[in-house]
Automatic annotation (TrEMBL):
Entry's localization field: Cytoplasm, Cytosol; Cytoplasm, Perinuclear region; Lipid droplet; Nucleus intermembrane space
Subunit structure: Homodimer. Interacts with ALOX5AP and LTC4S. Interacts with COTL1, the interaction is required for stability and efficient catalytic activity. Interacts with PIK3R1; this interaction bridges ALOX5 with CD40 after CD40 ligation in B cells and leads to the production of reactive oxygen species (ROS). Interacts (via PLAT domain) with DICER1 (via Dicer dsRNA-binding fold domain); this interaction enhances arachidonate 5-lipoxygenase activity and modifies the miRNA precursor processing activity of DICER1.
InterPro entries (UniProt xref): LipOase, LipOase_C, LipOase_C_sf, LipOase_CS, LipOase_Fe_BS, LipOase_mml, PLAT/LH2_dom, PLAT/LH2_dom_sf
Name the record gives this protein: Polyunsaturated fatty acid 5-lipoxygenase
Organism: Neophocaena asiaeorientalis asiaeorientalis
Pfam families hit by this protein: Lipoxygenase (PF00305), PLAT (PF01477)
A biological process term (GO) from this entry: response to stress
List of residues binding Ca(2+) 2: 39
Cofactor note: Binds 1 Fe cation per subunit.
Amino-acid positions noted as binding Fe cation in the UniProt annotation, renumbered to this chain: 368, 373, 551
Keywords: Calcium, Cytoplasm, Dioxygenase, Hydrolase, Iron, Leukotriene biosynthesis, Lipid droplet, Lipid metabolism, Lipid-binding, Membrane, Metal-binding, Nucleus, Oxidoreductase, Phosphoprotein
Reactions catalysed according to its record: (4Z,7Z,10Z,13Z,16Z)-docosapentaenoate + O2 = 14-hydroperoxy-(4Z,7Z,10Z,12E,16Z)-docosapentaenoate; (15R)-hydroperoxy-(5Z,8Z,11Z,13E)-eicosatetraenoate = 15-oxo-(5Z,8Z,11Z,13E)-eicosatetraenoate + H2O; (4Z,7Z,10Z,13Z,16Z,19Z)-docosahexaenoate + O2 = (7S)-hydroperoxy-(4Z,8E,10Z,13Z,16Z,19Z)-docosahexaenoate; (15S)-hydroperoxy-(5Z,8Z,11Z,13E)-eicosatetraenoate = (14S,15S)-epoxy-(5Z,8Z,10E,12E)-eicosatetraenoate + H2O
GO molecular function: arachidonate 12(S)-lipoxygenase activity; arachidonate 5-lipoxygenase activity; hydrolase activity; iron ion binding; linoleate 13S-lipoxygenase activity; lipid binding
Amino acid sequence: MPSYTVTVATGSQWFAGTDDYIYLSLVGSAGCSEKHLLDKPFYNDFERGAVDSYNVVVDDELGDIQLIRIEKRKYWLHDDWYLKYITLKTPCGDYIEFPCYRWISGESETVLRDGRAKLACDDQIHILKQHRRKELETRQKEYRWMEWNPGFPLSIDAKCHKDLPRDIQFDSEKGIDFVLNYSKAMENLFINRFMHMFQSSWSDFADFEKIFLRISNTISEQVMNHWQEDSMFGYQFLNGCNPVLIQRCMKLPENLPVTTEMVECSLERQLTLEQEVELGNIFIVDFKLLDGIDVNKTDPCTLQFLAAPICLLYKNLANKIVPIAIQLNQVPGDENPIFLPSDAKYDWLLAKIWVRSSDFHIHQTITHLLRTHLVSEVFGIALYRQLPAVHPIFKLLVAHVRFTVAINTKAREQLICKYGLFDKANATGGGGHVQMVQKSMQDLTYSSLCFPEAIKARGMDNTEDIPYYFYRDDGLLVWEAIRAFTAEVVDIYYESDWVVEGDQELQDFVKDVYVYGMRGKKASGFPESIKTKEKLSEYLTVVIFTASAQHAAVNFGQYDWYSWIPNAPPTMRAPPPKVKGVVTIEQIVDMLPDRGRSCWHLGAVWALSQFQDNESLAVAVLGWREGLHWPPVALLPRVQARRRECCLGPGHMPTTARTTPPPPRPPAPLHVLIALHPAAGH
């Protein structure tokens, strides 16, 4: 009688094991076996982390095994079970693996097929086609679209984390509880005594050190020591937390009436401002998105204020980017002066602080929340709805979006909701952040997520003209590594463009993203369908890069750059100055966040910069590209930050090229792809 060896692997997360009865039956091309109870005498089966083996003897030849049916029946109380995989050794000695990697709840039947990736056109057997269709029908009932706020990309239909499908929940909800994490941050930072001191101002800049020095690092200390310098101010637009706004100025904006006479003391080449623009030496950061955004009014005892600055920057003879003019609101006029480096010290310092505060708001709500978290959630939901687990594209992408939906749901539950934690310390809380996302949706285009195109669109692609832009340099290398890898995967499973166009599951996935995620807006440039292998490779690169490299680059350095409060104030408690020559150091300190909001801000950026215990840092050997820094710093923010330090130049850190020597060149081509989930660090 044919005998099969069945090996069952139970997950290692908490409560993954079960005491319920587990039955197995085999479905083959020649017949189906009876149900077999998987049980060994005097042995506790299916414990957490266990790998158990059983002999299953069948009466007749089953032929090629196509499916495995798992039934779970109650022993005493319903006991959920996380099944990783089942490996089957056939009578011929062949091994077949049936991956599961999901929770089995209640008294239910789960049907598994072998783990080989297949397109729909590769499945010619009716029972496999039926399994594929039923899996998607079930998923589409579980993963439903919902509009959280008008104008937002659609999100998962779940009011809280526990409403999510079990398979995409975090193993421990405590790990992503924002209230708990913030409280833990306060404790770790030893700032509990300050966190309720709202409306209580700091005495001076040095007073901020009371909540800073307990947990500091090399980057944050450098920021504290050099934040007032123009070179540090300009450097952050290239390699800080928000290196995506700066662009080459092709023409001076009409609403910034700056002249050569105003800035001639900053122009080192003895040229006019217009000539410097023509030579490509002038850059601009325009915060017009903040114009008209409602300010946070959730605390009637504290008035909070926003600005919508325009900042003009200059590449000097040392190839450093420095600010040369700042206008704090969009409409020019007598009460909206242009601040200059030649102004009084505190006038110029306050203008730069307003810009840094505005940059913080754009970073948190648009660069981080919208353009990584919410976009990745769209990809994730569409993936689960339209691609079965056996599809090669599902296998490729699922690790990158696994926890995205869960962390976003928790954020909507606790962080960015009405009266959420975001309202406590941020001037854009209380609804302003919602308005920002709604306004920014018109700029959320497919091309803006294609890293090389986004860099080129801002005129920041010339490496010789704009050195020290490590976000660009490493990002392009990582983008190319991912693109080359996805191209190889596409080549394996798609013989021609016709096969891509004919893959209906793939087309449904792309259409779901366009119709629901981007709300069917043609102006977004998101494709409604994909017809070539090249475009498919690019699309997959966008998904992976956004969820991994881009998120890591703009998230994990937050404590490094934002922990020194004056460098990134989350709110300002007085309006922008309307005249020059009246600002004092005392006024600046009074404008900055009070003690309570400073502590909430510090706890937030500390918590957001941490890694989850179950975060996946998967380093896959995929191919090497000439010049790729080791490790690839666009994906490892701590290393990226370290490299930033090393290139600040005299007076900051030694100008070394690397902190550690590079490894020897591998004998065979290698790339490095590091997958960091957006959920990690929250």
